[in-house]
Amino acid sequence: MVQAGNAQLECDMEYAEGRDVICRLYGVEMSCLEDAVRKTGFQNYIKIEGDRFYISTAIFKAGRTPGELIREIATLLRLCRSENS
Questions:
Q1: Pairing verdict, β 21-26 and 52-55
Q2: Residue 63 is part of which domain span?
Q3: Pairing of strands 21-26, 46-49
């Protein structure tokens, strides 16, 4: 679990080649996640569905790890308002 401001990210970090990292987002609007993903520049490796997002392990080919991308997204989510405000 990663806490960043009002956002909480919970990710299954047991990944393997061809298997996506699955994360759930709590506490902020999904539109904020969409903005954060866009700002990373790696939106081609991330799929958002409902309150979950999936990071493709193909991100390794771009020279990044899923953990690095999750930390970057968490940092960007710190600026988001809570879902209830």
A1: antiparallel
A2: 9-77
A3: unpaired
